[in-house]
Design a protein that fits this description.
Distance between the termini: 63 Å
InterPro entries: DUF7834, GmrSD_N
Pfam family, one: GmrSD_N
Helix content: 40-55%
Domain GmrSD restriction endonucleases N-terminal: 41-196
Domain DUF7834: 204-425
Structural class: alpha/beta
Number of strands: 7
Order of helices and strands: EHEHEEHHHEHHHHHEEHHHHHHHHHH
Length: 472
């Protein structure tokens, strides 16, 4: 890995950006080996939008002012900037900001207000409308605090460490090992950069906009990881949501590092073939999409994969608007309002997406309730609370995701779900416990007609009979 390291002030950084390679000696940024670092600052298309708000601006100003009052002669350290130096065909270098765009953009806005003569001659380019709107809001806020800005900001006393690599991949590898300033990228942000870098530059802007249109991806990625990891053939452990670094590493490994290098956009799915007596063959595909557990390729393939499942999640889980499946829609709306079932809800969503990606809407209303009986059984078979680690244990004992994935038809899947034996632990089903409230709601939703005294002995049989058409 070839890395150049240099220390520079914000004043030097902006001066270099303005005058490109025609550096004045006093403003030249020199690396530790004595070589000048040159290039125009640039924000790659695949970077997330500029999102700092007044809270971050206020915090930065307060920190700089506190430092100035205590150490007026010492520079204020703003952390590291990680840059990829890209050589363009015209011989000019471009310094792509890999880590630090929030700080650099904010300081650029301050510089323009402090020195209006920079005007049109200075400025990073922002095509993303989110960035453009936030810049307008922040400029207005900074203008309103201009006196405070003039009192505490001296660009020549604000200092960065520059880390410059010649390879984009090296820049991202270095970024992942550093604890630099600013808001750290999460797993979805890192895989975004990975896949957009794999897209042909001609289409990067198009796919960057497509990615931004997906919105928040944490939920769908969590569901997909459950579907991919919780299987008996290739079982893998998922870290707890509280282990944020491990979660990020898992996302990056599974959905970026371990994806194939091929540029092909490949999807997998089940095909139903019928061969007639004369040998003719007709084929039917249940769903025109991707398989949860399929291998992925870097770039367009993975972007389309995430987009497909985000759309499924929105349509069938997050905000269903399905007049032709009114009963299913009503049931999902009820299900998402259950208390004390957050971890179970995560598994249920993974199961639901896996089923829909294989079989579409075929028998979806019935399957949704059958899945509920299996997945939410943990709410009544546990003595008290449903803990996060108990869900992975449950899947090992009851491989419900495999039942779906290995089924060839909806009928086959329904039979596997119906074989599950529901049990009720008699603890904590009195009074106003979470468990008791859950059973009350299930009793009402499914019309089980049970009184409190019947819960221990008859709840499991009544729900099973209602959902499967048979008793235990």
């Amino acid at each position: 890995m070839s890395v150049q390291v240099a220390t520079c002030t914000v004043d030097q950084l902006i001066s270099q950006h303005l005058i490109e390679n025609g550096l004045k000696e006093s403003n030249t940024i020199v690396c530790s080996e004595g070589q000048p670092i040159t290039g125009m600052l640039s924000i790659p298309e695949y970077q997330r939008p500029y999102c700092w708000q007044s809270l971050q601006l206020k915090s930065l100003l307060e920190d700089i002012e506190s430092h100035r009052l205590l150490n007026s002669e010492q520079p204020y350290y703003l952390g590291s900037l990680i840059l990829h130096q890209e050589k363009l065909s015209n011989g000019i270098s471009r310094l792509n900001i890999i880590d630090g765009q929030q700080r650099v953009t904010t300081l650029s806005l301050m510089a323009v207000l402090l020195n209006p003569s920079l005007g049109a001659s200075y400025g990073l380019s922002f095509d993303n409308p989110v960035s453009q709107q936030q810049i307008k809001r922040n400029l207005k806020w900074l203008q309103e605090h201009l006196d405070e800005l003039k009192g505490c900001i001296a660009l020549e006393k604000l200092q960065f460490t520059l880390v410059v690599t010649q390879s984009e991949d090296d820049a991202y590898r270095f970024f992942e090992t550093q604890n630099t300033g600013g808001v750290r990228l999460g797993g979805p942000d890192i895989i975004k950069a990975h896949h957009l870098r794999a897209v042909d530059k001609t289409f990067q802007t198009t796919f960057a906009q497509k990615w931004e249109g997906l919105g928040e991806l944490d939920g769908i990625i969590s569901a997909l990881l459950k579907g991919r990891f919780w299987q008996q053939m290739n079982a893998r452990e998922l870290p707890s949501y509280q282990q944020t670094k491990l979660v990020k590493d898992t996302i990056v490994k599974e959905l970026a590092q371990d994806t194939g290098a091929s540029k092909e956009d490949i999807s997998y799915g089940r095909i139903r073939r019928v061969q007639g007596l004369s040998g003719e063959i007709s084929q039917q595909i249940s769903q025109q999409g991707y398989d949860v557990r399929q291998p992925l390729n870097a770039g367009i393939n993975s972007i389309h994969y995430l987009s497909y499942f985000q759309e499924l999640s929105h349509r069938y889980w997050e905000n269903p608007d399905l007049p032709h499946l009114a009963s299913y829609q009503a049931f999902i709306t009820w299900l998402k309002n259950l208390d004390g079932c957050g971890y179970l809800e995560g598994l249920y969503q993974a199961c639901l997406l896996l089923y829909i990606s294989q079989f579409g809407e075929d028998q979806l209303d019935d399957v949704a309730k059958k899945l509920f009986r299996v997945v939410y059984s943990r709410r009544v078979s546990n003595q008290k609370a449903v803990r996060e680690n108990s869900i992975s244990s449950f899947v090992k004992e009851t491989p419900v995701l495999d039942w779906i994935a290995l089924s060839y038809t909806p009928d086959q899947c329904c039979k596997l779900l119906d074989r599950f034996e529901l049990r009720v632990d008699p603890s904590n089903i009195k009074g106003n416990s979470v468990k008791k409230r859950f059973m009350d709601k299930v009793n009402n939703e499914f019309g089980l007609s049970l009184n409190d005294e019947q819960y221990e002995k008859e709840f499991a049989a009544a729900l099973t009979r209602k959902v499967t058409g048979s008793s235990l």
